[in-house]
Amino acid sequence: MALVKIEGVSKVFKEASLPVQALTSIHVEIQKGEFTAFCGPSGSGKTTLLNLIGCLDRPSEGKVHLENEEVSSLAQGKLATIRRRKIGFIFQDFNLIPTLTVRENIEYVLWLQGETESLRRQKSKALAERFGIGKLLSRRPAQISRGQQQRVACARAIIHKPLLIIGDELTANLDHKTGAELMDFIKKLNREEGLTFLYATHDPIMMERASRVVRMQDGRIIDGKG
Ligand SMILES: Nc1ncnc2c1ncn2[C@@H]1O[C@H](COP(=O)(O)OP(=O)(O)OP(=O)(O)O)[C@@H](O)[C@H]1O
Ligand SMILES: [Mg+2]
Known about the structure:
Layout: E1 4-13, E2 20-30, E3 35-39, H1 46-53, E4 61-66, E5 69-70, H2 76-86, E6 87-90, H3 102-112, H4 117-130, H5 146-158, E7 164-168, H6 176-193, E8 196-200, H7 204-208, E9 212-217, E10 220-223
Parallel strand pairs: 3-8, 3-9, 6-7, 7-8
Antiparallel strand pairs: 1-2, 1-4, 4-5, 9-10
Helix pairs in contact: 3-4, 3-5, 5-6
Bound molecules: adenosine-5'-triphosphate and magnesium ion.
């Protein structure tokens, strides 16, 4: 069974004065454990597609299945619940919440899910230690390095054991070495825990790290459908 199944998906943005056809008849399947890069020119639809897979948005046509569940027709509230439970996002600028401590940032999704404090603590501590940031738990994001912030962002994205992790251009604002370190780190999680990771990138070096490359152009997949 595919983890993600996209069937005949199109997306038209109608809010603008002229409708924009961002995706046209997309078919693609993602299997558990894949490490997949989505690439293609700016405006080719990478972010739009990742947002549909990540339950941040719904298609205009077609179906999106996560595991066995069709999520494309769910109402916003239900979509948010699925997102919290099944998806982990690592954002380009990490989006750590500056007023929260490292611990609170890592625990954030668990807190949204209503997890008890003791369980939250236990999980965040274990993960932080594994990621080498165990001593930083009471600091705030501004008081740790960029590399440490990456690790916090990774810990936060996986603490609830999501089905899949999505990173949209997540290395775009990083220098090469830091970006490569982040990818190696995620790759290790992928190898050791079978975490499924989908990312959009322009960077050829980031594409090389993928086990599968899906190429997009003008809202269509032109290669790597799988
Ligand atoms: N909310 C929106 N309203 C209208 N048009 C949109 C919206 N979001 C995206 N688009 C349009 O949809 C198309 C696909 O955009 P998308 O952001 O998915 O491209 P991308 O491949 O991620 O590009 P980039 O590499 O620059 O991030 C573009 O033509 C874009 O202008
Ligand atoms: Mg994009």
